[in-house]
Every structure is written in C-alpha cells, then in structure tokens.
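Need Imidazolonepropionase's 3D structure for a figure. Predict it.
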Amino acid sequence: MEHVLTNARIVSMQAGDIGYQPSEPLSIVIRDGKIAEITTNTFADHPQRTNCQGKLVTPGLIDCHTHLIYAGQRANEFEQRLNGVSYQTIAAQGGGIMSTVKATRQASQDQLTELALPRLDGLLRSGITSVEIKSGYGLTLDDEIKMLKAAKALETHRRVKITTTLLAAHAVPPEFAGKADSYVDFICQSIIPQVAEQQLASSVDVFCESVGFNLKQTEQVFQCAIAHGLAIKGHTEQLSNLGGSALTARYNGLSVDHIEYLDEAGVQALAQSTTVATLLPGAFYFLRETRKPPIEWLRHYQVPMAIATDINPGTSPFADLTLMMNMACTLFGLTPQEALRGVTTHAAQALGVAASRGQIAVGYDADLAFWSLNHPAELSYQVGIPSLQARMVDGELCHD
Ligand code: NIG
Ligand code: FE
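Structure prediction for Imidazolonepropionase:
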C-alpha cells in the first residue's frame, strides 16, 4: 500500500546540522510502512494523499528508558524527602523501590496494563512512537514475567512500539535480604533463562549502585544476559561512582543511564564503545540532585547522548518527553538540537534500532510526529502548550 504525505517541512535528523533544519515543503512516499521516497513531486493526482499543510514533521520521538509498569504511587516519600529524609534512607527503611514492589506484586497483569495506560497516553501526547519499558518491581520470577507481559500488552491498546527490558537486578527483594549474591544467582539461573526462552525482553538492565548491585554482581548478570542472546544496559553512576558505566562499555552495552557521577575515565571508556550515554533529567530534578552529568566531556569525546523520561513513581513521575528535552537544556545545558538528537537518533541507538528508527530517511520505518511549530527548537522551549497534531507508526496515522 502506498501513501503520500505532501507539503511537509521535514526535520529529518539525518547526520549533521542539516538534519536539524526544516526543509522546504516536500513529499514523503510511504510504502509498506517504510519511507520509500522523499521528493519535491507534489503528487497532485495521487489517490492516497495527505496534505501536511506545512507542518513540521520529525521522526516519532523515542523514550529509551522508562519504568512505565507499576502499581501504587509514592507522594508520601516525596513529602518525606522535602522534610529532609534522603532517597537512600527511605530505601534503607523499606520504602523506596520496595514499597512499589509490594504494590506491584499485589496487582494482576491486566491491572498493571490498565494502570500504565494514562502514563503511556501522556508520552503519546509528547509525540513518541517507541518506548522502552523495564520490569524491576516484581523481583520474583512470576512477578517479573507478569510485568514484562503487562508492558507488551500495551501494544494491543495503543499504536506504539514497545521494547521490554528485564530489570530483575533493580533491588534485593526481602526474600533474599542480606543474600544479594544468592539473588544474583537466582536471576542468572532462573529469571534470565526463562525470560529469554519466552522472548519477553530484548535486553537486561542492572542498578549498579551502593543501594543496588556491586560491580561483580553486575558483571555476572551481564555475562549471563549475553550468553542468552540479550543486550545489556545499566543504571550507573546515579548516586556514586562505582565504575558501572565503564563495565557496561566493556561489554558494548546499549546504554548507561543517569551517569551524574561519571568521571572522565568513564567517558573515555564510553568513547571506545558503541554505548550511548542516556541522561535522565527528570530524576535529577525530582531528587533535587546537584551533581550534573559530565556534558562537556561527553561532547569532547563525542559520546552520543540520549534523553529519556525514566518515568517511575519514586524518582521521575513525569510522562512527558518534551518536558525532559526542556530540562536537559535548562538543567544540563544541552542545546535544543542535542535534545532532539537525544530523543531521536541517539535514543534509537540506545535501543539498538538505529538502522530503522530515529530518522526520516529512505528505508526507515514511517514513524513520524507532526507538529504545529515553526522550528524544532520550540520542542525544547515550551512546555504544556499542545503542538502535536498527529503521530504515524509504520505508516499508519494515529489521531490520539
Ligand atoms: O531510574 N535508579 C533506580 N531506579 C529508578 C528508580 C526506581 C524507584 O525509585 O522506584 C530510577 O531512578
Ligand atoms: Fe530508571
């Protein structure tokens, strides 16, 4: 089936500054869900023609790090933190991730999908066409599988592409209290093999942190994931510098995420790999962190930077990717061009799909976002003023 979009001002996000400049009005020919041609032809007599009326067309945005599936909420902890209790202390007292684990274990798979829909709708309103979703609030074989299935089921409710990540190594569950090594063995002997066998996730993530898993445990999980044909990624250097980013880079992981405490040596390790540096300004903002990720070094060593919402109930309750672009600019000093790269080409790389998503180019998936804006800088500039007109996923227009 062929479909033509005419009169589109395209921000292709192909390599270089030129990919960021809106084109003159052009037509995009879409065949079988892929971009087949980009041309000045206006196709006056084409039977399947949509006039974009000069709207800005970008690649569909990609949110490459979320914890969209969870039950409960943690406004009480937000309040505690504002009364001076730290995130780490709340976690040590059994709150934090554990309180969400408790609520998530009690919910059914269908309830988890249902609870995630309004959050997903928020992301869709910010123009996303792909989203990564992690498990990590189940921490038993059955509950991790339940979360991954609940995440995948979202695709049957909304037009969006979902990539799932196993994050069983998010926290040590109460059943293994004081026995983190045994829990890591359990992840490697039971959870990863089952999840790989049932094809419920394409990658495995580890929270490598003093309140999470140490370097040795992280490496054990990575090696097991790779042996099962899964990609790896890490929550690294969020609260301290353990060297998790360099470890992830050594295994050519997809991405290292948070990275506020990453040092120059860590950035150099990333530069020697294909690993993307994913910035999560929502968590930085919400935890009122002061230590910023090393943007200058990342630029200097030309490490690709992605930006994601990290939406979760504890550290980033924000279902808006363009808000994250704004925060990456205002809090971390990214340029609006870097911010848009961070949610298109670089986010695609962070999901391992850079050859088919994240750009408007011939051969790429026809995943697009249509905006009533003049210039792509406006995506990072304003917040809360609806400008998304429509999304397209695999050539299918969605007016949600
Ligand atoms: O990405 N850092 C670890 N995991 C999440 C937070 C999870 C939670 O607090 O529920 C994050 O910030
Ligand atoms: Fe996260």
